[in-house]
Structures are given as structure tokens and as C-alpha cells.
Write a structure and sequence with these properties.
With about 775 residues, the protein is an alpha+beta fold. Helices cover about 50% and strands about 15% of the residues. It contains 24 helices and 25 strands. Strands 4, 5, 6, 7, 8, 9, 10 and 11 form an 8-stranded mixed beta sheet that branches. Strands 16, 17, 18, 19, 20, 21, 22 and 23 form an 8-stranded mixed beta sheet that branches. Strands 1, 2, 3, 12 and 13 form a 5-stranded antiparallel beta sheet that branches. The longest helix has about 40 residues, at about 325-365.
């Protein structure tokens, strides 16, 4: 019986080659999208879940309130917090302080003549006991036992020593300044870890070098706590909430803790300090998109199968008349859909294998098709569900035919079946129109973000870290830089112009009690404001001819927040130090355009600057970089000239949006392709079913254009209805997405009308290809056909 059924299915595939190929292409494309999205979603959902203590591991966060009742949430905490948790909170089993890797530029590690750039972090001694990073040598307990210890990854060990064996106690030179001794070698950090680093030093080393990180006034490193098995997380949060206020009087700051495994996916907070999504939004969004693309592919299968049902009615009638039950027929037609689905799976896996490198490049992942049991089960499950969904309606529909009516030729498709098929096509194209509008709007918003003038000049400006001899020889190095051909300006700044950076509170005359407004600040050297072409609207910039060591320059928003009139010459107090306002600059965007401009100030403090910034002449940019690199290596031998363009820093803020923009184009193209495949197949079956009508019309004088119009008008109406349905839905979705930005493009009407016309033109071209072909047939042949 099974052999007979498979033979019949195979013969039907041969008989209806066109619809089989269309279904195969549609289902394989849909499955490929679903499989790629599954790989990405699965990887996202597993981030940080490999830690053995994940259920008890918490990350401490900080609320920071300002005068407008807005609340900023940050994972920066006081450097002394971990010790306080260990000694003062009984629910805590252990706690560690960790500096995030993005704090630091790549460090120079060297052994003899071998030298590498390496990402490093500073962490408390119990770091490896709390987190589950596998050790190749050494132990979790002793990895950071003292200030002279360094724990390195296996790739770092191989790069420096050529092996990962017998390395304990070996010396490594750090930044050409100090030796550390290998205390542990750990396996390379898994790609599913939100923490990525190549080596770890004791946090005590950082405290010695930068004592300010160990002050309660500062928010800097991250703090993690491992709670005891019996601990109540809610009680723990209550106990730590006011912990900062026990040491300093800053009531606008309070603490709370979140499960570490939740932070990666649920990392966004609104201005009221309430958790409001994060990467989970993209997980949901791409999952929904993959579901819709699979649905479109299934709809194609259903439509083409039911459309060709009239060509199989005699087969059904004969089978039923000789005793075949409806259950057997359902089994046969479901078998067809399942075999098509599994054939599509094979093709889909090939597509995924080819597409994964490109997808990994877009998402920054390391996904692979390694055949692990979980992956195989997922792929088979998606395929089986797709096959059943795609084949269920055609199987139930075809198997219900009445054999007596079928064999007498009295079978006619029902109105309900016709409308169901049209409804499915409307759904397909509505989704495609939504994709088209989304691609256009997301692209325009990203273009707006990338081209909007920020209030400062970021073109042709590079920055690189001050390290080695650059720190004590800052001014000498800058003086030499300025003398190089192609260098327009050179100065130094504390950090990149991108990001909020450090914040502090300020006291001024007339300040309202309880005003906790945080002010961002940038320690700078002379000429930074001039180099960045930031407009001075009142007063002046920092000047070498004046005694500006106690001077400050605010932006306009800061002056407005403080309510100062005639601010030039007035004094304010910053961390118990009185400084004089010498200038006011126009507002500029130093944070992502998701946020409005916040109050900030520049303070002249060259000793606290950490980056060299250089303005290059646009005409000779490449040659200028070569000269700077040569001068850098001569001045600072043994260090790598590791520079970045300021424009790159700005663009990096919108990595997620850029990824969404690129992927949405691929998904939109896939949805349109699959929809057009279905429309192409339906148009072909429609033309075939109306062959005699076409022949009679041509005999009576209808032109080829008349025939094309006749076959196209019904599909045009269907697509037009889908456009009407899709446009308000797409407006709602995109309005919600644009709500994440303080600065955004308006949703112009032409985005929606233009996208609808694009979909309509694609549908016309798809149908017209079949309609034109049908219009050119010989009417005699049409009338001869049975």
C-alpha cells in the first residue's frame, strides 16, 4: 500500500511539474529563512546560560534620578560595592567587581620578541569561581590570587608561547611597563558569552593605578553577586537599595539586582527606570517574520494544490468508486505535501549553508550547521509542521469530492473555496507590502541618523589611546604631531565624543533643593572645541593666554537646566571645587539620537585626557596616516598604532538598526519572491482553466491586450485589497519603532503609496508574463483541447 501511494505521488509530481517546482522553490526558500532565524534565535536565547550558577547569579544595577523625575539605569556601580555586599549582606555567598572590556583599548602583551594586542579586564579574586569559564591550567580559586597574577586564554597562550602547556609562573610583559606571571590558562570564551576577553588581571591592580574607581562617589565597574541557595532575591533588593546612601549623601542613586542571564535579552529601560525590552524585541520580531514567510510559502502550496484540484477530480472519483476511503486519500495528499516539504528541507539546508557566512557577517555571530541533536530535532520539527500545515487544507478539500458528481462532470468549485483562495493571496501580499514599507522607512531612518549634523565636525578625525611614553610626553608628542604635513589639528580628550560618559552633580547659586540632575562631562586639552568646530554662543573657548585651570564650558541645555542668566563669569561647584564659567557652546549630540541632548560641560584638564585626537586634511588622508604611524612608532616603540575614525564610533551606535535594515531587505525580498511564485502559478492555472474562453474571445475579435487585461484584472483587485489592508498596519508598526528615537523622520504618505505601487507593479509583471503567453495561443488549438 505504501509503495503504491509513493508511486502515485511520484507520478503526480511528474504530471504537474510546474506546480511541484514552484512549491519546491517556495517551501525551500521559506524553510531556509526559518532555519537561519532559528539558528540566530537559539544562539541569542542561550547567551550566558552556560554558567553553572546562573540561577543564583545576579548583576547589580544603579538607578540615577534627576530633577525632572527621569530615571537613568546603568550597570556602572561603585568599585567598593562588592566588598560591602560580602561583609554586610548575609544573603550573598560571594561578590566580584569586574571592569567591562569596552572600557579599555587593546593592551600590549609581550613575551620576548612576540607581541600581541589583547582585550583584557580587571576582576576580583573570586571571578573564576563565580563564572563557569573552563580552566586548562591552574584553578578557579588561585587564578587571581595576587596582584602579580594574570589569567590568559588558550589563544593568547598560543600566540605568546606557542603552547598551552606548562605555562604556570611564566612571565608576560604588560604594556612594556610591568611583568605579570601566568596563574591560569582558561579555554577561549564561548561565543555565547556576553563577556568577551583574552586575559584577566586582579582588580587591585586597577585600584592602585586609578584610586578613583574605589570611591563611593564614582560609578564605574560592574558588580556581580552570587546569592545563597536559600536567599530571597526580593529581600536582597530591599537591603541593597539604599546602600550607597549609607556612605555618601547622594539620594538620587539607588541599587537593585537582576538575574544575570536576563540582562542580555532584557537590557533596555525607559526614562522611568522600568524595564522596556531589549534584544528580546529583535528575537520576537525575527521569529514573527520567519513565521510569516513560512506561512506565505504554505499558502502558495495550498492555493496551487486547490487550484489544480479540478484537474484531479476524475482521479478522486475513480478511487472513491472502487472503494478508497477518504482517510486513504487524505493520507496520499498529506504524503505529497510531506515529501515536498522534506525535498524542500534538503534544498533549504544547502541554501542555509551557502547563506550562513553572509548572515554571520551581518549579525556578528559564529553560527554553523553542526548536526547536534537539538538542531536536527528543530529542523525536522519545522519541516513536519510546515508539511502538515501546507498539505492539510488541500488534502481535506480534494478528498471530500463526491464520486458520482465528479464522474458525471458536474463538479464545480464552491464560492467559499474561491474566496478562501483569494483571501490567502490577500494575506500574502499584505505581508509583502508591510515588508516593503518597513524596508523603505528603516533605510530612510538609518540614512537620517548617519547624515544628520550633530553640532560638531566628525569628518577626517581619528583618535587613538595614550599609552606608554605618550602619557608623560603628551605635550611633546602633540607638538610633533602638529608639525606633520597633512595634520590640521591635534589635541587630547578623555574619551570618544560618542556616549554619555562620566556624570557628576553640580552646585550653583539658586539650585532647587532635591535637584539631582546629572551632568555629563569631558576633560579636554586646549583646541578640542576648535578642532571639532563646536559653536561657542557665549564667552570664549579655553585659551592658553588665560589661567583656565579652574574654568568650565557648558552646553546650552546645561545653562537652561540651571536657569542661569548671563552665565559668563559665574561660579559653580563641581565635587567641592569652585570653577568659573568662561563659555557656552551650542548643543551637540554626544549620545545616540535615540535620546535628546542632555546637560554637559567641558573642563580643561589635560592630565586626565586618555586619547589623542587628530584632524586630518581630506586631500592627503592616507599619506597623513602613514606619517602619523611612523612618528608614533618612533616616539612610542613597542606599541601598536591602533586608531579609529570618530565617524566609525558614531556609526557603531546604530549597529542594531543597521542590522535590522539589512536583514529586512533580505526577508522582504524573500517574501516578495515567494508571493510572486504563488501568483505566477495561480495565473498559469487560471489561464489553463480558461483556455476555451480565451479561444472563443479571440475568434470573436478580442486582441492580445484584451486577453491580458481579462486575466490580470482579478489579480489586480486582490493585490489592491491587500495594499489597503497593509498600509494602516505598517503605519502602526513603524510609528512604534520610530518611537524609540528622539530624532526621527516623519512618516510621509509617499512611503506607503510608493510601496503599494511597487507591490502592484511586481504583481502586474508576474501575472502579465503568464497572461501574455496565454493571449498568444492559437484559438484553434484552444478549441480543440478537451
Amino acid at each position: 500500500m505504501l509503495k503504491h501511494t509513493l508511486l502515485i505521488i511520484f507520478r503526480n509530481f511528474k504530471r504537474f511539474k510546474g506546480s511541484f517546482l514552484i512549491n519546491l522553490m517556495g517551501l525551500s526558500s521559506g524553510l531556509a529563512c526559518a532555519l537561519i532565524v532559528y539558528l540566530w534565535v537559539n544562539d541569542e536565547l542561550l547567551v550566558d546560560k552556560f554558567h553553572l550558577n546562573r540561577d543564583r547569579l545576579y548583576k547589580v544595577m544603579e538607578f540615577q534620578k534627576n530633577s525632572e523625575a527621569n530615571i537613568r539605569v546603568t550597570d556602572s556601580t561603585p568599585g567598593l560595592l562588592a566588598d560591602e555586599l560580602m561583609s554586610g549582606i548575609p544573603e550573598v555567598e560571594s561578590a566580584v567587581t569586574v571592569t567591562p572590556s569596552y572600557w579599555h583599548n587593546p593592551f600590549i602583551l609581550s613575551v620576548g620578541e612576540r607581541l600581541i594586542d589583547s582585550r583584557g579586564i580587571y576582576a576580583s579574586s573570586k571571578f573564576f569561581s563565580m563564572f563557569s569559564f573552563d580552566m586548562l591550567q591552574g584553578t578557579n580559586v588561585k587564578a587571581l590570587a595576587d596582584k602579580n597574577s594574570i589569567a590568559i586564554s588558550e589563544s593568547t597562550a598560543t600566540a605568546l608561547f606557542g603552547t598551552t602547556e606548562n605555562l604556570l609562573g611564566k612571565a608576560i610583559e604588560f604594556q612594556h611597563e610591568r611583568e605579570f606571571f601566568v596563574s591560569a590558562v582558561f579555554k577561549n570564551i564561548p561565543s555565547r558569552s556576553s563577556q568577551q576577553f583574552d586575559f584577566v588581571l586582579s582588580f587591585d591592580v586597577l585600584k592602585d593605578a586609578a584610586p578613583q574607581v574605589a570611591r563611593w562617589e564614582n560609578s564605574g565597574p560592574m558588580t556581580f553577586a552570587l546569592l545563597k541557595g536559600s536567599a530571597d532575591p526580593e529581600l536582597f533588593n530591599k537591603k541593597i537599595s539604599g546602600l550607597i546612601n549609607k556612605h555618601i549623601s547622594e539620594k538620587h542613586r539607588s541599587l537593585f539586582a537582576r538575574r544575570f542571564v536576563d540582562v542580555y535579552l532584557y537590557g533596555n529601560y525607559n526614562d522611568q527606570g522600568i524595564q522596556s525590552g531589549g534584544r528580546i524585541e529583535y528575537v520576537i520580531m525575527f521569529s514573527v517574520i520567519a513565521g510569516f514567510i513560512i506561512a506565505i510559502a504554505c499558502i502558495n502550496f495550498m492555493n496551487l494544490s486547490t487550484a489544480k484540484a479540478t484537474r484531479r477530480i476524475k482521479e478522486v472519483g475513480i478511487k472513491k468508486s472502487i472503494g478508497a476511503s477518504r482517510r486513504i486519500l487524505i493520507f496520499q495528499y498529506l504524503g505529497e505535501s510531506m515529501l515536498t516539504a522534506f525535498a524542500s528541507l534538503v534544498l533549504a539546508v544547502l541554501i542555509v549553508d551557502v547563506a550562513l557566512p553572509e548572515f554571520n557577517g551581518i549579525t556578528g555571530k559564529q553560527l554553523s550547521l553542526y548536526p547536534e541533536p537539538r538542531l536536527i530535532v528543530a529542523f525536522l520539527s519545522i519541516t513536519i509542521i510546515t508539511g502538515l500545515v501546507a498539505g492539510s487544507y488541500p488534502a481535506l478539500y480534494i478528498s471530500r469530492f463526491n464520486p458520482a458528481q465528479v464522474l458525471k462532470g458536474r463538479f464545480n468549485g464552491s464560492i467559499a473555496e474561491l474566496w478562501a483562495r483569494k483571501g490567502l493571496v490577500i494575506f500574502q501580499f499584505a505581508i509583502s507590502v508591510i515588508f516593503i514599507v518597513s524596508v523603505l522607512v528603516v533605510y530612510r531612518q538609518i540614512e537620517f541618523l548617519q547624515t544628520k549634523h550633530l553640532g560638531y565636525d566628525r569628518e577626517n578625525i581619528i583618535h587613538f589611546p595614550m599609552e606608554g611614553k605618550l602619557v608623560p610626553g603628551r605635550e611633546a608628542f602633540l607638538s610633533g604631531l602638529r608639525a606633520l604635513p597633512g595634520v590640521v589639528h591635534a589635541s587630547s580628550i578623555s574619551q570618544s565624543m560618542v556616549g554619555g560618559g562620566n556624570t557628576t552633580s553640580i552646585e550653583w547659586e539658586g539650585k532647587s533643593p532635591g535637584d539631582n540632575t546629572p551632568f555629563a562631562f569631558r576633560p579636554v586639552n586646549y583646541d578640542v572645541i576648535e578642532m571639532l568646530n563646536i559653536k561657542v554662543v557665549e564667552g570664549r573657548s579655553f585659551n592658553r593666554l588665560n589661567q583656565d585651570s579652574m574654568a568650565v564650558i557648558f552646553n546650552q541645555t546645561a545653562i537652561n537646566v540651571m536657569g542661569l542668566r548671563n552665565p559668563i563669569g559665574q561660579t559653580v561647584t563641581i565635587r567641592d571645587i569652585k570653577v568659573t564659567i568662561v563659555g557656552v557652546v551650542a548643543d551637540f549630540h554626544y549620545e545616540s539620537l535615540r535620546f535628546g541632548v542632555q546637560p554637559m560641560f567641558f573642563v580643561l584638564a589635560p592630565q586626565f585626557t586618555e586619547k589623542i585626537i587628530v584632524k586630518l586634511s581630506a586631500a592627503v588622508e592616507t599619506k597623513s596616516l602613514e606619517r602619523i604611524e611612523s612618528y608614533f612608532k618612533q616616539f612610542n616603540p613597542g606599541f601598536t598604532f591602533d586608531f579609529r575614525f570618530m565617524d566609525q564610533d558614531y556609526q557603531a551606535q546604530y549597529f542594531e538598526e543597521q542590522r535590522v535594515s539589512i536583514l529586512s531587505r533580505y526577508f522582504a525580498g524573500m517574501a516578495i519572491l515567494i508571493s510572486c511564485l504563488g501568483l505566477f502559478g495561480l495565473a498559469a492555472f487560471t489561464a489553463q482553466r480558461r483556455t476555451k474562453e480565451i479561444g472563443i474571445r479571440k475568434v470573436l475579435g478580442s486582441s492580445e491586450l484584451d486577453i491580458v487585461y481579462l486575466l490580470s484584472i482579478d489579480f489586480t483587485k486582490i493585490v489592491f485589497v491587500s495594499i489597503i489592508i497593509a498600509l494602516p498596519i505598517s503605519y502602526f508598526i513603524l510609528d512604534q519603532w520610530l518611537g524609540n528615537f528622539a530624532y526621527k523622520i516623519p512618516l510621509a504618505w509617499w512611503y506607503f503609496i510608493g510601496s503599494g505601487m511597487v507591490a502592484l507593479c511586481i504583481a502586474w509583471l508576474t501575472v502579465a508574463a503568464q497572461a501574455f503567453r496565454a493571449s498568444r495561443v492559437n484559438p484553434v488549438e484552444c478549441l480543440k483541447n478537451d
